[in-house]
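User: Second chain of the day. Same drill as before.
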Amino acid sequence: MSKSEIYAKRDGIAITTEMRGYAGRKCERPVYLVPCQKCGTKLRKVTYKPSKEYLCDYCKLEKKRKEEAIEQEIWDLIKTPKEQTFDKAVAKLYKQVKKFDSYKEAIEIAKKRTERYDSIPEVLVAIELIKLGYSIIPQQKVGRYRVDFAIPAEKLIIEVDGGLYHPNGPKAGRDGDIQLSLGLDWKILHIPAEWISNHIKMLKKVIIAGTSDNREK
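Assistant: Same format as last time:
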């Protein structure tokens, strides 16, 4: 009697037999009907070890999913606030666009500068600009200020505003200083954060409309 048979009889595992062909001959071999340790589905095994975990394919998949979920929870706990903000922005982007796979490269490039983005709308703008082929500098220092995005090739500054931008409001003086630092041929484009969160795919049209020469990239 094999060890498998001894253990199976001890643990109440049902044993049946099946015919097996070998070298042109057929012979009987034992088959152990081992219950899945989660759902009880009978699994046909040619050996039995009491120390081994027996799971059906479905329960294996469920176990893997739970392990991955726990791993993700742990990873989320050790992420910095800005890394969490970046992940939330990517999740929001996923809901907005149809061909999400086309954004993967832009997301990877933008992710390298995670610490430079202060909000979800800023992350969305960064990813979309990179996707569109713009070479951007996030949080570029201009004089005594920092601007959200500088696009040197286009001589364009993009600012993500928390509220509605008023040309004659407090930021007008700041814009004037930035304009003097960069030159009058530069443009400063203000885009409301709330609009970005819902219409990021329209960013290129806004850029074209907001620049005086309306050049297409």
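The chain has two domains: 3-60, 81-210.

User: Great, on to the next one.
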